[in-house]
What does this fold into?
Amino acid sequence: MVAYELTDAEVLQINKMNVASQRADLGDVVQDNQEAITALQAGAVVSGSYTATLADADGSSIEILTGTTGIAGYIVQVYQTGSTMTCHVANSAGGSNLTITPTTTGSWSAIDAGDTVSWIVF
It folds into this structure.
């Protein structure tokens, strides 16, 4: 839910609404809380799943567009025919994409159509 942003004039009106509002600077408190909520929404947890196609099988990595910016961390799990696989994951600083690459020495050495990547970013 996106909250209505208070203007500075509205903050002053709320501050002067009644004695309790005046003592608590209620308008300032509400405005500070709105800023905190906006910051929390920006750091929201987003998740998804991607199934490799025949076009992916020709490449050396899968690029997942997460739709979020400023990724601070991520959790990725790759499944090939129902079994978990080891992979390499990269995210450019502040970017919104994850690059999933098979390991050169692990159990997942090639991308096959039908491989599934489940991911969580925060």
About this structure: The CA atoms of residues 15 and 26 lie 5 Å apart. The first strand starts at residue 46 and ends at 51.
